[in-house]
Amino acid sequence: PSKNKGNSFERQIAQFLTELYGETFIRAPGSGAYVGGTNNQRKQFLHEGQIRSFKGDIAPGQSFPKLNAECKSYKDFPFHQLYQGSVKILDLWIQQCLDASDEGDFNIIFMKFNRKGTYVAVEAQPNHTDLLFTRHFNYGSGLNGHWYIMDLELFFELNSDTIKRLCQ
């Protein structure tokens, strides 16, 4: 059931991005980072399009070659730990996202929690100064840099054009 829940959420995010940008986003074949982490050596044998299709959980549309997206759908999330400075599960998800990442990628984690909402975590990068954040949380992961956490719909409402530009 948890695998089906995750697959369903990945399809929801792919559909959301498809409708938003008018080009096809799909759940990555087999999902997960086929070329991330310990599988990074596989990049040597794949062409750019294949690498892009197997990176992260979402295979992006044609004009989003720098999108690196992970999707997480969980029953609950320890929001209180954000204020304590360390959320182990979030650090794990960030590491998974970064394992598949290449230099210059726009790294984003889509997160859905039962009866709590859908959020994004976005890596803070020097070239992301045009992104707008409001009602967000700045999470400083000691292991993986700074990330912004914000409501998914509000984030894309404020930043959809900027995200497309950053992913090209």
Tags for this model:
168 residues, alpha+beta, five-stranded mixed beta sheet, two-stranded antiparallel ribbon, 7 strands
Write up this protein:
With 168 residues, the protein is an alpha+beta fold. It is 36% helix and 23% strand. It is built from 5 helices and 7 strands; from the N terminus they run αβαββααββββα. The strands form 2 sheets. It has a 5-stranded mixed β-sheet, sandwiched between helices. The protein has a two-stranded antiparallel ribbon with strand order 1-2. A hairpin with a 3-residue loop joins β6 and β7. The longest helix has 20 residues, at 2-21. 35% of the residues are buried. The mean pLDDT is 87.
What structural class do you assign from the helix and strand content? alpha+beta
Q: N- to C-terminal separation?
A: 36 Å
Strand order of the largest sheet: 3-4-5-7-6
Question: Beta-strand level of the residues, as a percent range?
Answer: 15-25%
- Count of separate DSSP helical elements: 5
Strand count = 7
N to C succession of SSEs? HEHEEHHEEEEH
At a glance:
By secondary structure, this protein is α+β, with helices and mostly antiparallel strands. The protein has helices at 2-21, 48-54, 80-84, 88-100, 152-166; strands spanning 26-27, 58-59, 67-74, 106-113, 117-123, 137-141, 145-151.
How is the topology of this model organized?
Layout (H helix, E strand, L loop, with lengths): L1 H20 L4 E2 L20 H7 L3 E2 L7 E8 L5 H5 L3 H13 L5 E8 L3 E7 L13 E5 L3 E7 H15 L2
Parallel strand pairs: 3-4
Antiparallel strand pairs: 1-2, 4-5, 5-7, 6-7
